[in-house]
Amino acid sequence: MSKQIPIQDETTMTDRDSQQPQHSEQAAASGDQEATASADNGASANGVPYRFDETRGYCTLALLPRINDAQWGEIEEYGTKILETLENPKSKSFLLDLTALNYIGSALVALIVRLWKSAEQRQGRMVVVNNDSTVYEVLEIAGLTNLWSIVDTRDEAVDELEGTTVKRVTKKALSILWPLGGILAVVGAALGLTLLLESTGTVQKNIAVSVQFSCLALGLIAGTLSAVRSHGIWRGIGFLLILASIIIGVVGALNLS
């Protein structure tokens, strides 16, 4: 007696075969959605190591400490994104806030130079806010302190950005003229001391003392202003002027007694 083998309906088999690819496609789509959501959550959690603030016609870019942990390639990518924002016509000039940093590497210096050059090409300006001596020293060694306006606070940076051209030129000129004037004053004080030492008559001594101490007063004033208001080498010259004025004054006073 022969055994009958049940034959499946062709329509049922076809339906089941067509359902298997659909399940696979749904699973793949679900996996892609989960991966995308995970990537978005990761990017949102990490964030970027900088912050923008745009007010009153200027843009403020604050660099955060964790940017120093980024690799060179990552910093270049950050720079490209930053430039996309700074290329807005409303942001030709901007303020760069480095107050959160206590260290700055070569890759970050290169990024800042890139931002500065971009502002120059747009006929804009970049003002740097920094109050850390280590960061300033790195910028000074790189020769950038003579090219950029570097101030201690955001208020000073705003004044610098909103100031007129005459005001900026005058301020920069004074930062150089004060130490130069102080040098001339100290030289005059030294000549007065020389006259005092070589004088024999009372009138000559009085003239020499007047010249010496008048120049010393000017030297002290110019040296103090240079030390307080100037930057870099001019600030150092200011301290030297103060020291030289004190020494000449002491020597002159001893010769009067």
Structure description:
With 257 residues, the chain is of the alpha/beta class. Helices cover 67% and strands 9% of the residues. It contains 8 helices and 5 strands. It has helices spanning 10-46, 72-86, 106-121, 133-141, 154-162, 165-198, 202-229, 233-256, and strands spanning 50-55, 58-63, 94-97, 126-129, 149-151. It has a 5-stranded mixed β-sheet with strand order 1-2-3-4-5. Helix 6 packs parallel to helix 8. It is elongated, with a radius of gyration of 35 Å. Mean pLDDT is 77; it is low at 1-46.
Question: What are its keywords?
Answer:
5 strands; Transcription Regulator spoIIAA; 257 residues; five-stranded mixed beta sheet
Give the topology, please.
Layout: H1 10-46, E1 50-55, E2 58-63, H2 72-86, E3 94-97, H3 106-121, E4 126-129, H4 133-141, E5 149-151, H5 154-162, H6 165-198, H7 202-229, H8 233-256
Parallel strand pairs: 2-3, 3-4, 4-5
Antiparallel strand pairs: 1-2
Helix pairs in contact: 2-3, 6-7, 6-8, 7-8
